[in-house]
TrEMBL record:
It comes from the Bacteria. PROSITE patterns: HTH_TETR_2. This is TetR/AcrR family transcriptional regulator. The keyword Cell membrane does not apply. Pfam families: TetR_C_6, TetR_N. Gene3D superfamilies: Tetracycline Repressor, domain 2. InterPro entries: BetI_C, Homeodomain-like_sf, HTH-type_TetR-like_transc_reg, HTH_TetR, Tet_transcr_reg_TetR-rel_C_sf. It comes from Lentzea alba. SUPFAM superfamilies: Homeodomain-like (SSF46689), Tetracyclin repressor-like, C-terminal domain (SSF48498). Residues 31-50 bind DNA.
């Protein structure tokens, strides 16, 4: 049996390859053999860590979410003012750069499949709920410091920003000529700026 450190590295490698295949081929067309080929391992090795395809894809979605948070942990843990953190969140989630675009495609596949799949609906609820709570906490910080209007419900404000990011990013990924990355950035940042108490008057 491989050493624990080797197991962890190989498992992460398989999950990263699974996300890559989901992004490129789609959830429904994912084959374990394609994941194994991309990861440079045998199909048997994939099944050693994940007995079923469902276990593999569920773990891949979790991996994608955790990696997304890890890449942005510096923003969430920074001492920047809340509005600055929200602007950084917007910038970091623009669908540009291979890593971020791949993650967006994985989430798009999850959302499409979750429409018809109760198990994936539960996964989406868990991950999406955690992300919404994180964004809402930034809004709460801003209201506590007086930087953000105190009249808005933090969860509702988080829903507005998150849904704006999601919807516009899907349009960018779909190749909309009207919704480019630059237009998305401008639109989302304008929303964030309008929350500032400094914008009043």
């Amino acid at each position: 049996m491989p050493r624990p450190s080797v197991e962890a590295e190989r498992k992460a490698q398989i999950l990263a390859s699974t996300c890559k295949v989901i992004a490129s081929e789609g959830f429904r067309h994912l084959r374990v053999s394609d994941v194994a080929k991309d990861a440079g391992v045998s199909g048997g090795t994939v099944h050693y860590y994940f007995e079923t395809k469902r276990e593999l894809t569920d773990a891949a979605f979790a991996h994608c979410f955790e990696q997304s948070l890890t890449r942005r942990r510096w923003i969430l843990d920074s001492d920047e003012p809340p509005l600055s953190r929200l602007r950084l969140v917007v910038e970091s989630y623009l669908p540009q750069g291979a890593e971020t675009v791949e993650a967006w495609k994985v989430w798009a596949e999850l959302w499409v499949e979750a429409i018809r799949n109760p198990e994936l609906q539960e996964l989406n609820e868990r991950f999406y709920g955690e992300w919404r709570d994180i964004v809402a906490s930034i809004f709460r910080d801003g209201q506590a410091t007086g930087e953000i209007h105190a009249s808005g419900n933090p969860v509702e404000l988080a829903n507005m920003l998150v849904s704006m990011l999601d919807g516009l990013a899907l349009q960018v990924l779909a190749g909309s000529k009207a919704m480019t990355v630059d237009v998305m950035r401008t639109t989302c940042l304008r929303f964030v700026d309008q929350l500032s108490t400094a914008s009043v008057g």
